[in-house]
Request: fold
Amino acid sequence: MSSAFSTFLQQVINGLQLGSIYSLIALGYTMVYGIIRLINFAHGDIYMVGAYIGFFAAGFFGRSFFPTLLVAMVGASLLGLTIERFAYRPLRYQPRIAALTTALGVSIFLENFVRQFVGPNYLPYPRIIKVTQIKVGDIQFSNIQLIVLAVAICLMLGLTFLVNKTKIGKAMRAVSFDKDAARLMGINVDHVISTTFLVGSSLAAAAGVLVGITYPRIDPYMGILPGLKAFVAAVLGGIGSIPGAAIGGMVMGMAETMVLGYMKSSYRDAIAFTILIIVLLVKPTGILGKPMSEKV
Amino acid sequence: MTRAKSLLKVPVVLAALALLYLGLIAGFSNNPYYMQILNMAAINTIMAVSLNLINGFTGQFSIGHAGFMGVGAYVAAVCSVFYKIPYLIALFVGALAAAVVGLVVGIPTLRLKGDYLAIATLGFAEIIRVIIVNIQKVGGPRGFLGIPPYTSFLWTYLFAVGTVIVISNFINSSPGRACLAVREDEVAAESMGVNSTKYKVVAFVMGAFFAGLGGGLLVHLLSIAHPTMFTFLKSVDFLIMIVVGGQGSITGSVTAASFITVVSEALRKFEVWRMLAYSLVLIVVMLTRPQGLLGGKELTWEGIVNVPGRLRRFRLPKVGGGRVGTAGH
Reply:
């Protein structure tokens, strides 16, 4: 195998790993946007809080992976529920700009709260899983990369099952299609919206823990950029579409790794927003998005 | 309103502004630190009023205002450092560059319904920062040093007043009314023949222009431009000013910009607490009074000259309503 090609494959593996993280965060964005048309700016910070909960849970559970992941997901989903209940629900019938501003406020609050009460510095993430390198031909990858990918795929399959095969999933799709009609059909809309925040936040927390074990350090501002990029991923895949968010996240991760591998690394943060501008110019509904009709 | 009262308007307002300027100079010019705060208050006024045009009056959601400020700042600085262009022209070129960038960002995003502008402006501000960091000629990540300190309080004050006059006249003009219509109901505005994309872009580009102007003033005040001066958190500062002051109130923006500049300066030692407090203010104001503290109310000439009349009515509560200083046009 030529070395250029194996370098490329190496980048693809790295891209899939980063892409799984973006996909998990993007799913929460797209679900919330699909259901209440709100860009939940605090979503990236829920991912950050999830990573922090995982950090402390790992110390408590003697560094075993699944309890840590579970506790982080439960903790973050409670946070998501609280935010929805107290910050977003009172504004549901106000102009959208009010809810957006509040979301931004919640985001800044979470960052500075963690910064003030946990500390502003990088924390080294505990080594929950022992790293072993696996070599296939010229390509080298770690067991962590496999675990990240596997956990992400399992969670996404679980989400697909939840949305397509269960009663609450059906209710979610109904509410996102038409909130008022759903209410007339006897669906408890508040309950469905809460569930959406719960599921989205737990996925973000899972992404936080996975990032923690891959790049073993966390800080209070770690959620800002991945949050924004995941949102762009959701727009790229078609905002409101769950498979779209998964695909968009993967594409975003891949694009970023390629920029890192073949161009100047300082451009890595610009690529996401370049993609965004291109999507908005060429196909604003995204890869899998349906054109939205205007309701008066 | 009688004709005599409205004839008085321009000279009295100008005299009041001149008096305010002289008063501020007389009160603070012996203390450079206070003058600096006054300068910052004036620049923040420009930023808040121009952001209010986009967010408050046109109902869009831009959260990358610091990005336009950065464009104006760096372009103006390059003009006066490398090309030795006179100060005022350099400021103008910087503002124009910010407006052109605003056009480039605005056209693809503003034709869409929904909240794409928020994320696009945020992303664009980030791209600008990355580009600036990668240009070694302007100092890259080290910052751009040695910008001549041309900005004085006279200029920041004049430009702040100018910005307020231009934007408040714009809002009361026909295109300005179209912007308000777009804010109230985009679909209804379109059905009345308002080209909503056009007016959104006009307001956005105008906002970007004044943000660029503010940036140019700022770097010629501090004689340094640094990429970290134009981050997302800076945009949030401006957003908080218009939210607290009232989205859709120029009076509110001016008051809140000046007030928050002073408060921030006083709380400089408690940076994290300040951000915590800001975020809570943002949330609580939105939850309890989404229109902001002043809502859409303005301090107007009509409001002031009618004060005696209102006071009279106050004593006889059964006559007349309690309309307080709304724009009476």
User: Anything to note?
Assistant: Chain B touches chain A through 43 residues (CB under 8 Å). The two ends of chain B are 10 Å apart (CA to CA). Residues 133 and 141 of chain B are 5 Å apart (CA to CA). The longest strand of chain B covers residues 144-145.
